[in-house]
């Protein structure tokens, strides 16, 4: 366990609070495309999780610590209970918060992840090593960085997403995410703590892309065990980036959850 950090965040809108948690390599900005109309009726809060975006760096990335960062943000904003929406790693942070601070959670939406351990270490390890190997001193523009990464990361969408972490100041280009820490913490990020095993019975929606492979039979069983009252929805033909690939279906499911009366 580590100390609790003050997360960077953006927020807008008035009404019941909804906190949106991004996935690995992401930031709160990942949600901008799907939160616009929600800000008319809800207070939308988009933090950067530790070691991401503009938030502080720390060598530990265990889920109880990351969940406590979110609880600290809720306290800083003087909120009592919130709806939490989390994608991938952010979904695990949201599930961990249901375990360590259940009274602060009104509703939960988890996007394309389950409370189980994964092994994507080869894929993510390769991505991190590729970014670390990029000669930033030879880069004169973002398109140049994109071209330099193209042979190792052939998917343009993944390159563009990773390049949101490339920043420039008077000293040149740098990565705003601590790649060495993310590489070291990959086993922790991919895991699910065995001691987080208390069922949470509040209103919950688990939304996954059926083409992503992230929520299989083992994951479905774990969701049912830990979140027995959750609605589980699979979207055919949709991959891991549910809110980007199927924004209307995502917004429909979120609106349905938000209109659920407090229990």
From TrEMBL:
Source domain of life: Bacteria
Keyword tags: Hydrolase
GO MF entries: hydrolase activity
Domain spans labelled AB hydrolase-1: 16-247
Pfam families (alphabetical): Abhydrolase_1
Protein name: Alpha/beta fold hydrolase
Organism: Spiribacter pallidus
